[in-house]
Amino acid sequence: MILFKITMEENYFKLLEYKQKLEKTGEYLPLEKEKELLKYQSQISDHFRWKKKNHFIEAMVHFLEDTIDSDQYIDRFYGIDSQIEESKEKLKSDFEKLRAFEPDPRSKGFAILIENLFSDIRILEPDDELRTEDEISEKSLRDGIKEFLSEIQEY
Amino acid sequence: MEQVIQVGLVAQLIRTISVQYQRSNNPKNRLLIIRVLLKRVKKKRNQHLNQQIEVNGENFEFERDQIEKKAPSHRTDFGLDPDYSPDGEIIRDRKTGKPRAKQNKENYEKFTANLSEFVQDPTSEKIEPQYRKGRDNKQDAVGLLNRKDRRFVIFDRHTKKYITGWVMNDLQYQEFINNNDII
Fold this sequence. Notes:
The complex is a heterodimer.
Chain A: H1 2-24, H2 31-51, H3 53-64, H4 70-93, H5 95-100, H6 110-122, H7 138-153
Helix pairs in contact in A: 1-2, 2-4, 2-6, 3-4, 3-7, 6-7
Chain B: H1 2-23, H2 27-46, E1 51-55, E2 58-62, H3 64-74, H4 105-120, E3 125-127, E4 130-133, E5 137-146, E6 151-156, E7 162-167, H5 170-179, E8 181-182
Helix pairs in contact in B: 1-2, 3-4
């Protein structure tokens, strides 16, 4: 198990290095390699977003209970995520820490749940008159939160 | 010419308001009527600013209304400078968290030009994703993607009208390459 883990991490660094090398010549990773690299990177997102799970849940519950409005909900979500981005950047800039980094296995698949909620925020248009075909109402935003809340709480 | 269009539109607006007003006694409905009409007038007024482009034999359209709608959130992904607050801080868009660009005619035009340039760039690759809207709705899209910087622009696959476009983050890109979904 330990041997497998080390190999996996080494592979991540090899892929990163390969990507940077290709970028210098204006090329990019073949799709399969890109998928592999993204899989590693999403583990970092999973881990840091999962660590803030309760903050996200609190914002969701407060919005559903009308303790905060949609603007406050959006601000809270971005506020939490900017702290997460800071942590991720700090980790990525410290090669030794990154090498020693072990994502919590319980966090696997968590980040995309939150990303779906951000996706809804991006296309929210509360005003019926201004809403275009590619946007959603506040009711749809709430429905999405309700749908994801239990899934997020189970993590 | 533009002035003639404006005068004609205003006259049309007044006529329509009068008719609608006579039909409705409810002040709330009257307000709604005015808002709908103003929206329609704005759409008509902007019609001559819509732009069409051809990419590999396909015609796509940038409607000015949609450009104005999407521009504040995504312009800085397409080469426009961010706007700053009086205290020197970058102003961020509330819904995307990305830096906002100034909202003015010059920037709308520059944004359209940059989007056009991007979709006509031979290094941009054609994609046919599903654009996810909310939980269960998906919109058929067609667009162009630059795999290197993960920038994309999509249009409705049926009407060929511009929907949106931005730089995908890791999770969005992963969702796209695994499931062909833009979220």
